[in-house]
Amino acid sequence: MGIQFGAVRKHNPEERLYPDSNNILPVPRTRTPGGDLDSVTGIQLHRKLMGFYQRELERQGANRAEMAEDERIYDNEHWTAEEKQILEERGQEALIYNVVSTTINWVIGTEKRSRTDFRVLPRRKEAAKPAERKTQILKYLSDVNRTPFHRSRAFEDCTKVGIGWLEDGIQDEDDGEPLYSRYESWRNMLWDSAGTELDLSDARYVFRTKWLDLDVGSAMFANRLTQLQEACRDAGSFGADWINGDEAMDSLEDALSEGTLDSVLMHRQRFRAIECWFRQPVKVKRLRGGEFKGEIYDPNFDPHLEQVQSGKALIVEKVMMQMHVAIMTANALLYVGPSPYRHNRFPFTPIWCYRRGSDGMPYGMIRGMKGIQRDINKRASKALAILSSNKTIMDEGAVPDLDEFAEEVSRPDAIIVKKPGKELVINAERELAPAHLDFMSRSIMMIQQQSGVTDENLGRSTNATSGLAIGRRQEQGAMATAGIFDNLRFAAQIQGEKQLANVEQHMPEQKEFRITNMRGTPEYVTVNDGLPENDIIRTKADFIISEQDWRASVRQAQTEELLQLLTQLAPVNPQVALVMIDLVVEGMDVPQRDELVKRIRQITGMRDPDAEELTPEEVEKAKAQQIQQQRQDALLEATIADKQAGAQLKAAQAQRASAEMQRAMTAIASGNVQATRDALEAAMVMLGAPSVVPVADQILHESGFQSRTEQEEDARQAGIMQGEQQAAAEEQAAEQQAQEQAQPGQPPEEPQQAPQPGA
User: 274-293: per-residue pLDDT in tens?
Assistant: First the structure.
């Protein structure tokens, strides 16, 4: 049967934690009221969980103390009470030059100014519309829950102490929206330090502790009033439970307990409530295949039932690490049950800054700068003390009254009268002040070098004069802090996945909500109204973080390079620059960036590369383009038809001309045949009457008829005459050219005339 535990005596609830205690009394297996919570199994579970809790409290105690000290450094609490007392006795001022806080504020401000965006993507094409509705409802929940502000607050804890926490869960709708997202203080959280994953996927448990008033606890756990009264602490002993808490966890309770007012009206009964989310192996029914594969089968969830009945999913029994939740005090359980969330994850999401390699403990940016910050304060205090005080070295009896001398020497217009022959030296060792100030300046520079937040990032004047040098140093600072922002993005991704799972599980009813854009224009959206495109619970989707757009980031540097490239391309090839401008503006950190990109794409005709479906404007534009294309196609077809008709007409005309020519050739051939026949008949006649031939020739000659022989002779004579004329012209041109080539001023030689006879 195993070990049976009993009840502890009153006034000593802590002894339940120790198995070797002699203060355990035998009791029956069941007790009332409490049922299974007070059974053997319940007591064993309580002891197990409290053992985990105290183990983590002890293991993380030293690091938690340092985390609290890091936070005090940011809050200008640099000197302890003992150090202040020592300085006061020395006459020094406890100066604080908080260089660290300026560095941390730059990182915090960078996150606040440039937050990430997100969207939900479907796993199947037909689930695109429901995924769009999920994106809209998540943005609505982000607005009403003020999620960006809670995330920024958790990020502040991350940068200061090393870890920040976010919580996502479900609550009563009377308190607002059923799904909430909020910040949780690092002081209240403990986790499985054996886990190494950033999302705690390999951790067994996570604890949260809070101090509650008895009346609040009694309203929540009315059947456990006796156990709550045992766990209460009077108002005068807040934070006295050092076994189950530490200074970081109970600092607020310690502050509440301070004061001397002792009144019955101020009496408050308080107890420490411990909430534990833990995984333990359990055999459960799970779905294999289908839309909800891997989830624990819920017969009351209609989509699960539909998947099984349709044969898309099978029910299998498997052992898995199922999430459970327990609420307890140090002496008893108050509630135990399985997790209400189907995602089977912790409802808490950590944001990590840095983790120690030896044990995985977190630490923030202040941890490495803490010693340098103390050095700055001490040197500033020492330099001020040296510069504002007067050291005196003198012989005994140099002044008649030491008290009067001390009062006089502290005045800026002091008049010192000393005895002759006695030595008196004032302001000895004052030259040490510049040395302290020099080391102080070096320490300030060291903080900048270690954190990566340079003067260029802070907008201060430096020795970097060119824009390129300033940009390179700003980029150096951005790269030094890029890991922290990457952890923030990872935490936002994990938190978004939990939020999406909660929406798909806990919002099955019809709901109408309003979302607004950056200009405040409202849009009303309805989900689960019976339409398939508005059903958000029957399909699964994925939460995606959009590309981060930190101002001082590599992405911003890439945008600037793209802008320079665009400036160089515009004069050479304006068309290329025109199709790139929307992507360049999309990467800029400017107000109303999305609207600017939208208008640019409307002008240039470019589509959103991430859009899966056409917008109504794009649908109308596509229809207009289709109509215009149809018109152009019709016009082209008509033009082609007209040209084809013209070509056919010309072909017909050519065919007719060819036919007429053929007829003419036929007629000519017929005429030639007839002429030949007539010529032969004439020749026969002439041969029969030779005396008639000369008379016929004379008649033809007189009528102007030329025979072919005469025509050929005339043509020959004309060619001879034309050749003689051309030769004469060429001879004359040659003579003229010869005269032009003669020397200037010399008349051309006259041709010698032949001597006349008788001269």
Answer: 999 999 999 988 888 888 88
